[in-house]
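Re: beginner question about structure tokens

> Can someone show what the tokenized structure looks like for a real chain? I only ever see the sequence side.

Sure, here's an example I had lying around. Input first:
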Amino acid sequence: MTEQTFDKVWLKKSRNQFDTLYTAIRNMVYYRELQRLTSDDEVVSVFFENARVALLGSIIINWNKLFALDLNEEGWKRITAESGEFRNRVYQATGFNYQQWRDYRKSVREFSARLQAHFDSSHHLEQQLSLDPAFQVLEVCHVWLHEVYQPHPELACEDLLQKDYIEKLSADLDEKVLRWPLVNAIDPT
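And the corresponding structure tokens:
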């Protein structure tokens, strides 16, 4: 549980970023699921690849808004980037130190620029950035905000109130994928 407390004014202001955060989290879960799936059918395989690239674009754009841009909303920055406790959790989850975290955020900004210039699967962009730290930061952020908003659930969104939101969404998606019409062409590995 977090020891840090925040003024309700800053909690209200940071709510503006919830849609951005949960769009990135949902797309992360969908991206991971599509990575897991393979197909012998060329059309289905190309569909999965292009869908992954589209999800990757959304993840990176939203992740940048949350963590990589210096012109971020003040309330959000105060609760996340400027919080020593949040940064320590990021460092612990990713293995980064201050400089590595700063460098990674810069590399995500640069990757975003490449992604915007070459937004198609033929450029193999997925191999140009390690996505694990970005995903770990999204997971840390969800748990962190879940704890920060515990004293004020009326200010939180529904997704934030569920500490196991990411796990539930992943499990639900795993189950639903089995019912996709493409299921005969899919080989879950």
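Each token stands for a local structural state, so reading them left to right follows the chain. The longest helix spans residues 42-68.
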